[in-house]
Amino acid sequence: MSIKAIRGILHSDLAPTRKLELIGNVVDAVSRFLQEAPAPGERCAQALQDSLTRAGAIAGVDRGRVVAAVTQGVKWLVRSAHPDGGWGWKVDERAPFSKWTRSPGQSPALPWDTAIVTLALHQWNRFQPGEPSVAGAMERGRQWLLAHQNSDGGWGGLLRLRRASLSNAIETGLALWVLGQTDPAEDAATKRAFEFLASLQNRDGGWALEAGQRSDAKSSAIAVAVGSLYPMEVRGRATGVEWLLENQRPEGNWVIPARLAGGIDPTFYAMGALQIEYHGTGDLRASQAIARALRWYRDTAGLVHRGRKVGWGWATLESTASAVASLLNCGEPDDSPDIEKGVEWIVTRHHARDAWSWDTSVAVIGLIRYLDPESRLAAVLRRRARTS
């Protein structure tokens, strides 16, 4: 494990002085590990992994570098908008849904891409208000979503590419979340969307991605969370919370079927839904589930290799950004090793030409959580409590 860490550092494109610093940290970590004499077997391997992970902690994040990366990412998102106001990236339709790859090549605008970009621009507009280009692109994205609501009340687009039904719970929930953030007025479009979501709830209390399918964690968490933004009550929300609590894995995370794998980790959505639930009801089970999920995030951080890039994070850029956002949403300190390592890894993956490509919106949202404490879910819930 330590040899792998040193090899990854040596083959990275880090500055020579930074390589020496990290290798020294690894050597110190192994020395401390040997002195502690942990138990043999699996616990021994985990203790070494913990030591190496701690060794990767950086001595503070360069905030100016983070702001510069996010600023360039936001500009790239604004430039990437389609003439009709939406966003969409090229999808390899021949691959299974769980193995899609995307590139910035033009393709029809899609609800998922448009919603997540609009949300990222909204977060930036709160953090750095007064940029007309950002406000204009955000409003055009919102209008695009309203104009592309389907006749059944839902939204869909990605799944249409694999010849499945048009609307689905995930894209509908995300569109509702964005509209609730940017314009929470209760209108006919919102009511029809909630009626569509209600039609996808199963008897077990969870939500299915599409009608006739089994309940999954991502669809259920989005459906439970999105109702909190609106004055109306989501039918079956309480049973949805029960489903999430019952389907958390012993390790602390939530999983989804392989056919739906990819994208933002379902644990991010489930933690957000349960945090809203705990804030509203004080349900200790929700608090305990969040604590288990936080431990899972901390336990699964580790060394990540992407070409000549190496760092400490959570496998993919999407997973790292959502992990950073989840930890900060739940009160993790900005200067904790997990946060600093994750933020540094995201910034390291930034490119001057196209930011983080089609992952830019997710990276922007995760980094704004780091830069702006008021963007974190705990702060949002406190503000809502004061105004209600």
Task: Write structural notes for this entry.
The protein has 388 residues and is mainly α. The chain contains 16 helices and four strands. It has helices spanning 2-10, 16-36, 42-55, 63-79, 111-127, 132-147, 169-182, 188-199, 217-226, 237-246, 266-281, 284-300, 317-329, 337-348, 360-371, 377-387, and strands at residues 89-91, 102-106, 302-306, 309-313. Strands 1-2 form a two-stranded antiparallel ribbon. Strand 3 (302-306) and strand 4 (309-313) form a beta hairpin. Helix 13 (317-329) packs antiparallel against helix 14 (337-348). It is globular and about 60 Å long. The chain starts with a helix and ends with a helix. 44% of the residues are buried.
The percent range for strand residues is: under 5%
If you consult CATH, what is the topology of the largest domain? Glycosyltransferase
- H/E series: HHHHEEHHHHHHHHEEHHHH
> Do you know the CATH architecture of the largest domain?
Alpha/alpha barrel
CATH class of the largest domain: Mainly Alpha
How is the biggest beta sheet arranged? 2 strands, antiparallel
Offer a few descriptive terms.
388 residues; mainly alpha; single chain; 16 helices; 57% helix; two-stranded antiparallel sheet; Glycosyltransferase; 2 domains; globular; two-stranded antiparallel ribbon
